[in-house]
Amino acid sequence: MAHKKGGGSSRNGRDSKPKMLGVKIYGGQVVNAGTILVRQRGSKIAPGTGVGLGRDHTLFALATGEVRYERVGKDGRRVNVDAAHPQTAAGRAQGAPQQKNGN
């Protein structure tokens, strides 16, 4: 058997596109309904109250409120969206324009 592979074509050179997985919104942040919280493969983080689960296991907010992560059992995690007062949440929600106090 030859110990050199010869001068043929390369066997490498394949790659996949980045999937942009991970936590998108952290605990304590206020979000609007529909905001993506976590993109994951499998259900590493479970949906809690106010959180929906997409068919690709993406977690998203069902209501406007504050995001809260919690530990469940020995090594589980869950994310909740605690519904806040409409005026408070809308003013601080992710993606909402910030108000500047300029005189």
Give structural notes.
By secondary structure, the protein is mainly beta. The protein has one helix and eight strands. The chain has one helix at about 85-90, and strands at about 20-25, 30, 35-40, 45, 50-55, 60, 65-70, 75-85. It has a four-stranded antiparallel beta sheet, with no helix packed on it. The N and C termini lie far apart (about 80 Å).
Features:
mainly beta, four-stranded antiparallel β-sheet, four-stranded mixed β-sheet, 1 helix, elongated
Overall shape: it is: elongated
Strand content: 25-35%
Helix content: under 10%
Largest beta-sheet details: 4 strands, antiparallel
Distance separating the two termini: 82 Å
Radius of gyration, in Å, reads: 21 Å
| Model regions low in confidence, pLDDT < 50 over at least 5 residues | none
Order of adjacent strands in the largest pleated sheet = 1-3-6-5
Number of separate helices: 1
* Number of strand segments: 8
**Mean pLDDT over all positions:** 86
Helix-strand makeup class:
mainly beta
Instruction: Spell out the helices and strands N to C.
Output: EEEEEEEEH
